[in-house]
Amino acid sequence: MDNPYLPAPARIEKVTIENEARDLKTFQLSFVDNERLTDIGTSDSGFPIPATRPTTRKDFLFLPGQFGFLSLSGVGEAPFGIASAPHEDRVWYTVKKVGVFTTALHELEQSVVIGMRGPYGNSYPFDLMKGKDVVIVSGGFSFTTLRSTLVHLLKPENRGDFGKITCVYGARSPGELLYKDEIRAWESSSDINLVLCVDRLDGADWPKTEGLVPNVLKKVAPSARNAVALVCGPPIMIRFTHPVLKELGFAPARVFLSLENRMKCGIGKCGRCNIGTRYVCKDGPVFSYQELLTLPPEY
Amino acid sequence: MKNRVITKKDFPKFVGRLTNQAEVYAPVQVKDKDYSRFGRIKSAEEICFSHLNTKLPVKELFFPQREVLFEFKPGEHSQAQPPPEIENRIALGVKPCDAAALEMFDRVFLDKEYPDPYYKERRDKTTLIGIACNQPGKACFCTAVNGNPHGTRGLDLLLIDLEDRYLAMPVSEKGEKLVTSYPEAAGKDLENQQELASKATKAIELSLNPKELKNLLDANFDHAVWQELSLPCVNCGVCTYLCPTCHCFDVTDEEYKGEGARIRTWDSCQFSMFTRHASGHNPRPTGKERMRNRTLHKFCYFPKTHEEVLCVGCGRCITECPAGIDLRETLQTLLQTLAPGKES
Ligand SMILES: Cc1cc2nc3c(=O)[nH]c(=O)nc-3n(C[C@H](O)[C@H](O)[C@H](O)COP(=O)(O)OP(=O)(O)OC[C@H]3O[C@@H](n4cnc5c(N)ncnc54)[C@H](O)[C@@H]3O)c2cc1C
Ligand code: SF4
Ligand code: FES
Fold first, then answer.
1. Which end of chain B has fewer CB atoms surrounding its CB within 10 Å, N or C?
2. Helices B117-124 and B96-109, interaxial angle, to 10°?
C-alpha cells in the first residue's frame, strides 16, 4: 500500500546563497529515481512505488503555491513552498535558516541526497486568474511561491492567458532581495510591471524605490477592475496591505493569501495546522481573504 | 444474524479458540496499579473486567502512543520501506464508546486521498469484540453524544453479561463466524438484555443538543466565557492523551549508535509547542485559545465537516483532569451562556 510518510530520494543539484546575511539559500533538487531508468516503478526492496507518492519529476505534478516536505534522517522534516515553476526541470526551495532543521539543511552541499515528499496543498487560483490582471504583493523571503507563480505566468505559452501583471516586491535592504538576476531581467521586461523596493536604500543605486511595500503599492495603484491580488509576506506587511487593496477597490473574494501554520504531516491527520474547520495543509495554504474573514483568526 | 449464548463456564474455551486463530488483546490488570489496559493475553484468566473501562482506550492498538514509521542509517536520507505487516488480531472486551470512536478515527486516517497505511493495516487485521456496559460510570455520558451502553457501532461482535452467561450479538460476518457453533439465544436472554440496556441508558443523566451546541459555539468564538472556562486548566494534556477520539500526533527523528528512526507520537493541542512557528509567533498562544480549540474541534469543527460530534462520552477526561474540569459542566455552561437572550 502507498505510504504517504515516506520521502522520495532527491539530490541537491545546486545551492545558491540568496542574500547578504547568508541565511537564505535556494536548493535545486532532482529526483534520484529519474536516473534509475531500469527499475522505475519499483523501489530498492522490490515493492512497487505507486504513482500517488511521486518519486520522479514526471509524477511530481504541481501548480505554484503548493508546498513539499524536505527530510533529513536523524533531524526531521519541515514544509517549504515550492519556488520553481511547474515547467522547470528541478524543484526549488528557498530556505531561511531559523532553527534545527533549516540549520542542518544549510550545511549540506551539492550532490547530497535528501528526502522530499509532496506536493501538498492547493495552489494560487489560476482558473480564476485566467483573463484577468494579476497583482502580486510580496515582502521579505516569502517571495518563493510567487517566484514560481511569476515564472509560470511569464512562460510564453501561458502569458497570453492573463492580463496585465503588476508586482510590488520589497525587502529590508537591497542585499535581501531574492533571485536578483531574474528580477533584474523582469524589471526591464514589458511583460510585467515589476516594482522593487527596499525599506532603506543606504546610498545603493538599485533598486530604484525606497519605501514600505504597502506604501509603494498605494503609489503604483494597480487597477482592481477585473484583477486578482496575491499577497504573501510577514503578518505586519499583510496587515497594512489590506487597507490599501481595499482602497484600490479589491473585493475580499479577489485577494488571496498564503499561510504558514505549523505542520507535521501535510495530509490532514496530525491536527496542528487547523484554522477552525480548515486544515492549512489540505485546504490551504492559499485562502481567499473572504474565506479568512469567516474563520477564527488563528494563523 | 443469530444471537448466541456462551455460558461463563464455556467462556475460557471460547477465549482459547480465539487465541488459537489470532493474537488476542483484552483488558489486563496493570501490576501495582488500580487500573487495566489492553494487553496480549493467552488465556481467559488474564482478562480483567473489574474496572469500568481501560485507562487507555483501545485506540492504542491502532494508533500507538509511539510508533516507528521507518528506520534509517545516519546519512541515508530516504528509504523505501513498506509499513510493517501484522498478524490477525482480536480485541476482546472493548466498550461500545471506545469502539464507536474508531469509526471517527476512520474518517481521519482512512480518508480517500491519503489513507494512513499503518493505521489501515491494524484496522484491517483486527476483529473487535465488545462488552456492553450494564453499569455506566459516574462520568459517563455516551447517550448524550449519540452513543449507547449497549451500542454496537464499530464492533464485530457484542457480548452482554447476563450473570451466568454471555449473550453474543454478531454485528458483522467476521463476528458471526466466531460464535456460529454456540447455541442460539432464547427469548428470555434477549428480554434480559433489553432490560439491562434500558437500565444502563437511564443511569446516564446528561442530555445535549449537539446541533444547538455546534451553532452556538460557531457564533460565539470571541465570547468572554472562554477566558473564565480555561482559567483552572493547567494545560497538562491528559484529556487529549486519554481521549479515544483525539488523533493529533507529532513526527520526530531519533538516532542512537548508528541506528535511526522516524517516530510518530501522540501530541496534544493543549501544548503551546503544538502550533508555535519557528519565528516564535503562535496562532494559539495561551491556554484560552487551546482549550477553546479542543472544545470546538470536538463539538463544532468536526460536526461541521463530518456531521457528528468528535466525542463518545467515555468520561476519561472528566475523571483524570487534575484541575477537576468536568466537560459536562463546561458544555452546559456554554449552552447556558451562549444561548440567545442570555448575557453576552
Ligand atoms: C506551507 C509552508 C510553507 C513554508 N515555506 C517556507 C519557505 O519557502 N521557506 C522557508 O524558509 N520557510 C518556509 N516555511 C517555514 C518552515 O517550515 C519553518 O521555518 C521550518 O519548519 C523551521 O524548522 P526548524 O527546525 O529550522 O526550526 P525550529 O524552530 O528549530 O524547529 C521546529 C522544529 O524543531 C522541533 N523543536 C524545536 N524546539 C522544540 C522544543 N522546544 N520542543 C519540541 N520540539 C522542538 C519541532 O518539533 C519542529 O519540528 C513554510 C512553512 C509552511 C507551513
Ligand atoms: S486534563 Fe484538565 S487541566 Fe489537563 S489539559 Fe485537559 S482540561 Fe486542562
Ligand atoms: S500538517 Fe498535519 S494536519 Fe495539517
1. C
2. 140
Q: Which DSSP helix (H) or strand (E) runs through A167?
A: strand A165-171
Q: Which three cell numbers stand for residue B194?
A: 433489553
The ipTM, to two decimals, is 0.91
A11, closest residue in chain B (CA to CA): B77
C-alpha B125 chain-centroid distance? 18
* Nearest-neighbour CA in chain B from A148: distance (Å): 23
Contacts of B149 (CB under 8 A, 6+ apart): B96, B132, B133, B134, B136, B140, B142, B143, B197, B200, B201, B203, B204
pTM (2 decimals)? 0.91
Q: What are the residue boundaries of the structural domains of chain A, listed by start?
A: 8-120, 126-258
Q: Distance between CA A159 and CA A128 in Å, rounded?
A: 15
Which amino acid belongs to residue B115?
Answer: P
Of the listed ranges A198-207, B6-15, B47-56, B69-78, the one predicted with least confidence: B69-78
Could you confirm whether domain A126-258 is CATH 3.40.50.80? yes
Beta strands in B171-258 (DSSP E): 249-256
A239 class by beta-carbon count within 10 Å (0-12 exposed, 13-18 middle, 19+ buried): exposed
Positive or negative CA dihedral for B235, B238, B239, B240?
positive
Beta pairing, strands B165-170 & A278-279: unpaired
pLDDT tens-digit profile of A104-156? 999 999 989 899 999 999 999 999 999 999 999 999 999 999 999 999 999 99
pLDDT of residue B118: 94
Among positive and negative, which fits the CA dihedral A270, A272, A273, A276?
A: positive
- The verdict on whether omega for the bond into residue A285 sits within 30 degrees of 0, i.e. cis, is yes
Strand-pair category, A91-96 with A24-31:
antiparallel
Residue pair B271/B250 in contact (Cβ under 8 Å)? The answer is no
Are B77 and A115 inside 8 Å of each other by CB?
Answer: yes
Rounded to 10°, the helix A213-220/A235-248 angle is: 20
CATH architecture of A8-120: Beta Barrel (2.40)
* Helix, strand, coil fractions of chain A, as percent rounded to 5: 25, 30, 45
Residue of A114, A262, A277 with shortest CB distance to B77? A114
Instruction: Quick: pLDDT tens for B202-220.
Output: 999 899 888 999 999 999 9
User: B266 and chain A: CB distance < 8 Å anywhere?
Assistant: no
Return the SS3 of B246.
Answer: coil
Q: Give the separation between CA A265 and CA B119, rounded to whole angstroms.
A: 14
pLDDT at position B278? 82
How many angstroms does the Cα of residue A101 sit away from the middle of ligand 1?
7
Cβ of residue A167 lying under 6 Å from some atom of ligand 3:
no
pLDDT of residue A33: 76
Which of B108, B58, B67, B145 is CA-nearest to residue B248? Answer: B108
Flag whether pLDDT at A38 surpasses 90: no
- Residue type (1 letter), B255: E
